[in-house]
Amino acid sequence: MTHSRSVRPFYRPMRPRRRDEPNRAATPLELFFDLCFVVAVAQAAGSLHHDVSEGHLRHAAVSYLMVFFAIWWSWMNFTWFASAYDTDDDVYRITTLVQIAGALILAAGVPRAFTDGDFTVITYGYVVMRLAAVAQWVRAAAGDPAHRAAARRYAIGVTVVQIGWLLRLALPAEWGIASFVVLGLADLLVPAVAERPGMTPWHPRHITERYSLFTLIVLGEAVLSISVAIQTGLDAGDHGLWSLAAAGAVIVFALWWLYFDRPVEAPDRLPYSLIWGYGHYFIFAAIAAVGAGLVAASDHERHLAHISGTTAGYAVAVPVAVFLLTVWVLHVRPQQRGALVVAFPVVALLALLAPLGPMPVHLLALLLTALVVLTVLLRQRDLRSAPEASGPDPT
């Protein structure tokens, strides 16, 4: 189906987009949606940094994983729906803006969730986003007879789970984590059940681009965290943070390089697409946590944190290891062979050992640099061994 963008109506039937649509790219509304989610990511990373610096490690990890799940899951569901059914009429835009408003409500509740364990505001924001998504699925069910069964399952499943999230607010506090896990699993099961009658027509290359763009946004949040930490230190007259800042920047640059080293595309079969899409939770959460960990390491360097140097090192090393292992599972192992398949888990293991020695952040930067160099050398070797695949020399 060809979508005319010259004149945008207030309402048009929600027809499916073509999975083979050429030149499919992210829209300004999708980019605006991502940008507004930066607020929630920044709140989660900032609260994680504060808890880690104060030594509340278990509370930091549990709260961060729960909060980031709400952020990531809302973003992911909008992204896959938009890939299949973006009509770009006024009703679609207004509904999406409601979802963005829900994201801002969620972001406003992040500090309270960390400090008091109160997820009330986060839940309200999450439910606003998800119920707006239900309205979109109802439109899809009406406009796309071929995928009506899937759209209805989405609408019903999401609605039922949202009722569960609201009822969770009335449960005793000691049931908080267990009920969150149950409802989180229920949310994750909705796409697996809904897509069984026939996958909705999301666009694999468009999905890949959307995930890449959100990866860049989270990386940017990590860079901002480093910049703010260094600025704070310099304003306080502490000029000894330059070395730590350089090592932190190398780590973030290496994460970018390793994620984008070779082109990838979202799998187009249901089980693999779910694994690929769900697995990015760990990539996104790990990148944001690296930024928080680097700020905690900066606090330790300035004697402002109530943690040891080893703990500060692990605040960076653990998310780095999670990132490497997830990229290995999703991108490297399915497509690569030889040394690179071994190198990623080996470097992840060495990253977890780095905090046991001196200057762990610097050692992590060296390990990641070595892995980047290895990926470059192996890629060049592959190009030399298959010159016909590289095409004519542009010079």
Write up this protein.
The chain has 395 residues and is mainly alpha-helical. It folds into two domains: 28-194, no CATH class; 204-384, Up-down Bundle (I/LWEQ domain). The protein has twelve helices and no strands. The protein has helices spanning 28-53, 57-85, 90-116, 120-143, 148-168, 176-194, 204-235, 242-259, 270-301, 309-335, 339-353, 360-385. Helix 1 packs across helix 7 (204-235), helix 7 (204-235) runs antiparallel to helix 8 and helix 8 runs parallel beside helix 12 (360-385). It is globular. The relative contact order is 0.10. Residues 1-5 and 389-395 have low confidence and may be disordered. This is Low temperature requirement protein A. InterPro entries: Low_temperature_requirement_A.
